Amino acid sequence: MVTTAPTPYLHLPGTAREALDFYAGVFGGDVVAHTLEEFNRTDGPPDAIAHGQLGGGPVALCVADATGDQPAFRSEGMMLSLLGTADPATLREWFTALSEGGEVVDDLQRRPWGASDGRVIDRFGLLWLIGFEGEEPT
C-alpha cells in the first residue's frame, strides 16, 4: 500500500482480523494480513495479526493485534472525518454500516447552516464524522 496521507494504525485487543473484514465490508478495498507466525514472532498467538492493512478503496488503515505489554487502541478527542468524500447516498450507507455494533453519537442529519453531518463510534472504538454539503438528490 502506497499512500501520501496519514494512515491510522490501530493495535487491537485480538480483533484485528475482525476489524479488517468489517472495514472492508463497509468501505470496500483489499485486505492483506500477516500473522505473528509468518513474521517469526513468538510474542503472542501464532494466528494473531502482526500487520494487516486495508487499501485500494476510499479508506486506508492498518491494524495489528496488541501483543506483550503493548496497549490496545483507545481514543479520546479525535475523530476521523469523511466529510464530502463520497456522494450523499454512499456517506449515509457508511454511517449506517459503521453504527452496526457501535454507537450513534449524533445522527446524520441536516444542520441549520445547510450541511448534513453526524458522528458514530464504530464497534472498534473509532469516532467517525460523516457528512456532506448541499441537498441530497431525491
Automatic annotation (TrEMBL):
Recorded superkingdom: Bacteria
Classification via Pfam families: Glyoxalase (PF00903)
InterPro entries reported in the protein's UniProt record: Glyas_Bleomycin-R_OHBP_Dase, Glyas_Fos-R_dOase_dom, PhnB-like
Domain annotation Glyoxalase/fosfomycin resistance/dioxygenase: ranges: 16-128
Protein's UniProt name: VOC family protein
